[in-house]
């Protein structure tokens, strides 16, 4: 990376920045950090872009409201010229004004239509009330004496009173859920002096005010006197009931109803034409909406970037500073030349000048969609210091492998792999789908990580011979049961000897172990063994120790790479050597003992094999006992050799603790001696007063503070490393612990759920297996795949961050964030 300075002509600056944005390999620095955002040069252009974005969001909302498709552009449109910005503003203003006018007219028409619809139902049902009263009043109507009940008498009274203009009435419509409270309030306020008739509208009615479709009820309230009329009107207003006029004359009611029907028919035609016009406008807008949004975002990004530039003294050019990869300087100059030609800037072209600086550059990694997810895992710990070794290429392999060690089940690995393959193969169609769902975004962003985790889980599942907690006998077991039926009938379990030949009391022998191990992974006979957990725990614990120490040693050798690259020769002798010697004297030696024990002790000597744990403790304590046999030595001269290793490991502690501070003291004295010679030369030129006593005292105090910080920092680093070697080695035992937990949970789900159905015979067993499969599969997915998978993921992440990367990785840098239109559009995606 290099720091560059750009000299841009004001007329060509826009086109040059546009070309650099398409290139996406330049990170600009803000040269006006103390200037308010509202006082910068191009703030008006940024505001205009924000206004255009607001109008485009409004258009997009209206298009989605009508459920119209929004078409993506076939190619990436270029940033428009500054003069085209005026045309875009005019187009957006016209569409915004036209659509708002259409919405306003449509809302007014729809409100009028809803009011007329309620009035139609009100007149229809009110006419029914009066018709009932008239039928009750008509003597010619054939009725029996018993049909003249109290309701008919009341209707007769109502009709007669209305005909003599002694009773008034109010009609309206109220939501059905408020009708009971409305009736109760009328009764209490009017003290029972009003009469209420009601009828429900059978269909949903759209409310003229809120626009919601509700169940409503038509009511008629009969009263006498102005005082009751005022009370009824206030109650109707309080319950937000819509009051409509209703003539007392039947003929007038019919004429009003006919007029309402005519107006409804006219409004239906007008509303249909308005909706058609709205659809045409929105359909035409939807074809260009995405293109417009991309153009406006690019214009805004260009002017926002130009606000970070500075003017020269004569204000004839813009000055910009940016970080860029050295390998891309030719492409940057070509983009500047292309931008100057596109703007017609004349003979003066833009100038690119490399600057010399002591400032730390940003860290830039060349990534693709496969490595991006793994780099995110590393950057979550800390962005690599500039030119520091990047752990990502190694994490790409070790992370899914450590996950698979804890998640080792071939069946579960197949399910994880199928899910990841679905996301990888369908990534184009799934990229913008459920983009607002945070959990889905996490899964989709790590689809390649999940794919490798699934593949490695299949591999470790084959090694463990574990498929949904069951073993597969593909190649045939290397063990044979050579006992008679009488022996098997007397004992619940029998012991299979690992020796090839087992002599019996009669002198004959029975071969139980063929002497040839199972070709791949664990022998399936262990699935039937009572001591399966004891055996697998021993093997997995040793493998966890081997994997952990190997990874920590690899991390130390990566630190050697950093020391060589940054030319820190003293760190190689004062940090790397004591660290690697200490790790080798104790922990690499432990790995050698593990392999030595595996290769030197077979089944016939298994009972005499020393314990590695007791052996390591005795090595630290210089205790060498021959009783019990588990404390015996492995080889001749072991005591002297291990004593030498412990003394060498102890020597590494003061070596690392004192080496670096002493080196700093020596280097400071050398610098001080050089400074004395320089001061003598200065004094010879009659400038003795350049450095007074106070300044010399400040420099001496500063060196003392720096050395005290060096001692404290080195002490902490030394304690952290030597104690961390022990704690980190023990931390890798989580590989064994989580593998055990995963295997046991899988076995519990099999035996307690699925085995219930599989153990039954006949049709009942088939039906039971069908019903128990659903809970078994659900628990497998939610507990073993999701919860156990998340647990293994987090533990693998911790092993890389703490145990592995702490050996060589500082992560004190800051990321390279280029000005790129592609990144800008990806970070702020347009929802489909």
Automatic annotation (TrEMBL):
InterPro entries: V-ATPase_116kDa_su, V-type_ATPase_116kDa_su_euka
Keywords, alphabetical: Coiled coil, Hydrogen ion transport, Ion transport, Membrane, Transmembrane, Transmembrane helix, Transport
One cellular component (GO) term of this entry: vacuolar proton-transporting V-type ATPase, V0 domain
Transmembrane stretches, start-end: 394-422, 442-464, 543-564, 576-596, 644-663
Single GO MF descriptor: ATPase binding
Coiled coil: 35-119
Pfam families: V_ATPase_I
Cell location: Membrane
GO BP terms in the entry: vacuolar acidification
Membrane topology: Multi-pass membrane protein
Purpose: Essential component of the vacuolar proton pump (V-ATPase), a multimeric enzyme that catalyzes the translocation of protons across the membranes. Required for assembly and activity of the V-ATPase.
Family indicated by similarity: Belongs to the V-ATPase 116 kDa subunit family.
Protein name: V-type proton ATPase subunit a
